Structures are given as structure tokens and as C-alpha cells.
Amino acid sequence: MTAEIIDGKAIAAALRADIARRVATLKSRHGVTPGLAVVLVGENAASEVYVRNKGRQTLEAGMTSFEHRLPATASEADVLAIVARLNADPKVHGILVQLPLPPHIHTEVVLRAIDPDKDVDGFHPINVGKLSIGEPCLAPCTPTGCVMLAKTVQPKLAGLEAVVIGRSTIVGKPVAQLLLREDCTVTIAHSRTRDLASVVRRADLVIAAVGRPEIVRGTWIKPGSIVIDVGINRIASVDGKPRLVGDVAYDEALVVARAITPVPGGVGPMTIACLLQNTLQAAAGVNRAG
Ligand code: NDP
């Protein structure tokens, strides 16, 4: 058996096209153009690429893109002043502060300063709390993308044994919360989990968010399961050129799983698409119940 390859690139493109249609409707019916503001502090090559892609895809979706760049020497007060301005700006519906911030700036302080109704990354404690008590909220983008990809294979996930490897606040914990909402039976594994292989072996759905190249072996995968690989790891290949691999040994899992996401081209493209979806949701006021 060879697994279905879940084409995150195509699924993200279809989601962006659907968002663009909904943005056009919001504009024509309510005169609202969703606006996404990105704040970038300092110079980080990976962040630059990500911010450029976000800006381009925001415009392609028919939204307004705002970019605020500050030097690495900017103070925490400088960043907080921009966040306060964006919180008050009615043209801005989503605010994203690109991480990592320089070490002298407290990430938690900045993230908590963002208006929770504009927190399109879903990292504000209000949104984290709402996610855990099952209220409507802005949920983190990569986890939302993971669940969407799994649902392209099996629209109803209820009752599945889901194993999430990783417990970060960015991926592991929120994806586990989202899977609970889908009525999965969820196990969260981490670096202190005993016998990770046997935990993964009972999963109908595996979400690997570890950051360790190919840690999940094919022999760990239950035949017929769905495998969502969040990991992005740069390794040297035989010819010495760097290449990207996930947290799952792809070739091994491919012959056991029912469906699997490739790296790259799986979860990665979904993150910005889900960010645009959150921005649209924020602009439509879906989340503003209190
Ligand atoms: P973190 O480093 O914050 O978390 C990694 C998690 O993996 C931790 O909970 C850690 O456990 C666990 N872990 C580490 N080693 C092991 C091990 N040997 N066995 C079991 N668990 C282990 O990473 P992130 O969650 O931020 O990211 C995870 C991966 O996903 C990275 O490769 C990252 O690049 C990628 N990523 C991809 C995104 C995308 O858009 N595609 C977006 C975000 C991340 P413990 O808590 O005990 O330390």
C-alpha cells in the first residue's frame, strides 16, 4: 500500500481562493476590507521571507497589508507603542508580531498587549483560554492547518486515537485542543514520554511537531493511519547540499500509512492561509462575543 500524499500546497491555494471570494463579499455587502498588520523587529532572514510571503498573499486575497519594521535596537516600549496604535486603528483587523523578537524584548509582554480580537496568531492568553474551554476564538494557524489537512482525508475525526508529539504552545498544545474539539481521543507525547514508539503505534492520527529529523520511524506507524508532519528540519544530504526533512521518516511511513503530508509542501503552506482566514474572521467580527 502506498499512502495518499496530502497536497498542502494545493489545499492551501484552494483555501486562499475561497477566502478571496469571502473577502469580496464582505467588501461589497458591508464595505469592510480586512487589514492585516505585521510587525517585524530586527533582521532575520527566515522572518523576512515569511513576512514577504504574508504580505503578497494578503494582497492577493484582496485584503490590505500593513508592514511595520523596527531596527533590532528598538526598545520594548517602541514595539508596545506600535501595537497600541494598531489596536486603535479601525482599518487593522489582524495584528501579527513576527517571532522571534530580539532577546531584550519580552515576547509575552508584547503578545499580551495585542487586542485579543485582533490576535490572528491566537497566542494571547484570552484566545488560548477560549480554545481550551471550547469557545469561539482565534486559534493558532499551524494547528488549524494540521486539522484541516487531516479532515481532507477523513472529514469526521470523531473517535480516532490521535497522538500529538510535542507540547509547545505554538503547535503541540493547541493542535491537541483542536483535536479534542473534533472528539478525538488525544494523547500528547513529549521528550519525557516513555516508549514513544509504542504510544505512536496506537494512533489512527499522528501529528508530529518535534523538530527532530525523521525521529518517527515507519515501524512506529499503525497501518492505515493519517500522518501529519509539522517538523521542518534542515539536514545535509549526501551531496552536501542542505535539504528539508520532517519529523517523520517519510519513505518508511509512505508504505504503511493511509495518508501523509510531505515536507516541504504539506503543513507549511497552510499556515499563511489559516492566518488569512483568521484575519477575515476578525474583520467579520465573528469572535467578538466577549
Ligand atoms: P518546540 O521546540 O517548541 O517543541 C518541540 C516539542 O517536541 C517539545 O514539546 C519537546 O518536548 C518535544 N520533543 C523534543 N524532543 C523529543 C523527543 N526526543 N521525543 C518526544 N518529544 C520530543 O518546537 P515547535 O512546536 O515550535 O515546532 C516543532 C517543529 O515544527 C519544528 O520543526 C518547527 O520548525 C516546526 N514548525 C513548523 C511550522 C509550519 O508552519 N510548518 C510552524 C511551527 C513549527 P518537551 O516539551 O518535553 O521539551
Strand count: 11
Q: Ends: how far apart?
A: 49 Å
The SSE order reads EHEHEHEHHHEHEHEEEEHEH
**What is bound: which ligands?**
NADPH dihydro-nicotinamide-adenine-dinucleotide phosphate
Give the helix/strand class: alpha/beta
Tell me, rounded to a whole number, the average pLDDT.
Answer: 96
Strand content: 15-25%
Shape by Cα distribution: globular
Number of helices: 10
Strand order of the largest sheet: 1-11-8-7-5-6
Counting copies of identical and different chains, the oligomeric state is single chain
Ranges with pLDDT <50 over ≥5 residues? none
Give the proportion of residues in helices. 40-55%
Sheet with the most strands? 6 strands, parallel
Radius of gyration: 19 Å
Would you kindly provide a written description of the structure presented here, covering whatever features stand out?
It is built from 10 helices and 11 strands. It is of the alpha/beta class and 290 residues long. It has a 6-stranded parallel sheet with strand order 1-11-8-7-5-6. α1 (8-30) packs parallel to α10 (268-283), α6 (141-153) packs across α7 (172-181) and α6 (141-153) crosses α10 (268-283). The longest helix is centred in the N-terminal third of the chain and has 23 residues, at 8-30. The mean pLDDT is 96. The site of NADPH dihydro-nicotinamide-adenine-dinucleotide phosphate has 26 residues, from α10. NADPH dihydro-nicotinamide-adenine-dinucleotide phosphate binds next to α10.
